[in-house]
Amino acid sequence: MRSYSKIEVIGFDADDTLWVNETFFRDAEDEFCTLMVGYETENKARQELIKYEMQNLAIYGYGIKGFVLSMMECALELSNQNLNPEVSRRILEIGKEMLHKPVDLLDGVRETLEAVSKKHRVLLLTKGDLLDQERKLEKSGLSEFFHHVEVLSNKLPKNYKELLDHLSVDPATFLMIGNSLKSDILPVLELGGMAIHVPFHTTWDHEKVENPPTDKYQTLSRLDQVINLL
Ligand SMILES: [Mg+2]
């Protein structure tokens, strides 16, 4: 049995840990492929879109706005720069619809934050568009539980290190909880912190990890299972 007795500060990921997110991207990708019928097969359109998303991450960062630009660039390319104006209009609209989606909390989230924030300093650490993450946090009604909120451009070990240094948090006393092995679990373990993985039912290809070191962190099926561990 792992002991979390040294833990003083707990970081929570937001998207697909506290609320639904990836599902909206999957739905948008599905619609994008449908819009590309006539230019390209569904499989090829999906592959190409993912390629543009990956290429553009370094310049646009994570979030919906970058995703819309990638859809547009990919559609222009697949249509040989001869995209139906109706399709471009719809692509922009898909993005705006995503930015207005309701915030759907996952099971047990509120209870978990309520319990955990009584005994620990609680941080919200997320990637994505600043404005969109602020909107979701506000709509979630969860702001009161967080001592600090940080929207990071990336979740590499150096991003965590800079933040923990800035907040004077010793990594040995830090626990990160999230759905992404690549962004929430592995970088924190690398710094000497602890991590708990709570997988979401779907994972973006970019966040997938081959052969993760499963003996170094705990995996839970629901977020509220952490209440009894801490
Ligand atoms: Mg996440």
What does this structure look like?
The structure is a single chain. The protein is elongated and about 60 Å long. It contains eight helices and six strands. It has helices spanning 22-35, 42-60, 64-78, 85-98, 109-119, 130-140, 157-166, 181-190; strands spanning 9-12, 121-126, 148-151, 174-178, 194-197, 218-219. The protein has a six-stranded parallel sheet with strand order 3-2-1-4-5-6. By secondary structure, it is of the alpha/beta class. Helix 1 (22-35) crosses helix 2 and helix 2 packs across helix 3 (64-78). The model has no long low-confidence stretch (mean pLDDT 96). The chain folds into two domains: 9-19 and 103-226, HAD superfamily/HAD-like (Rossmann fold, 3-Layer(aba) Sandwich); 22-98, Putative phosphatase, domain 2 (DNA polymerase, domain 1), CATH 1.10.150. The longest helix is centred in the first third of the chain and has 19 residues, at 42-60. Magnesium ion binds next to loops.
Give me the secondary-structure topology.
Layout: E1 9-12, H1 22-35, H2 42-60, H3 64-78, H4 85-98, H5 109-119, E2 121-126, H6 130-140, E3 148-151, H7 157-166, E4 174-178, H8 181-190, E5 194-197, E6 218-219
Parallel strand pairs: 1-2, 1-4, 2-3, 4-5, 5-6
The structure holds magnesium ion (MG).
Magnesium ion binds at residues 13, 15-17, 178-180.
